[in-house]
Amino acid sequence: MPPSQCQQCGATNYASTLFCQNCGNPLSTTAPLPPYTQPSPTDWYGAQPNQPPPGYYQPPMPVPPPIVYVPVQAYRCRWCGSPYPPQIVRRMTTGGYVVLILGLLFCLIGAFISLAFMENQHICPSCGHRVF
To answer: How many domains does the chain have?
Structure first.
């Protein structure tokens, strides 16, 4: 590229410079870019909005299986007929009580071993009977 001449002061500048090194005047004037416009959906592939482009195969959507609702049997206590669900209480088993008594008789530390013999029990909140 040939060197460029400044229009204002006439100084010779390199071809790659954008401004005059003598006076700072812009050396080349470029046309401004046109304003940006948002393309419409019909401009893309020439398709209508929400439609695939021509030549695109879209497989049919599978039909979901029907949902079958199975009614749940309501809970009832065996003894009192209460509809409330049972409470879960953590209690010591019979073996735990035996270990507790033997631990108290022979050594106090052995009594704490009885705490390992615990189980969950389901209790009816209305009548207090053991359910399961």
So the answer is: 2
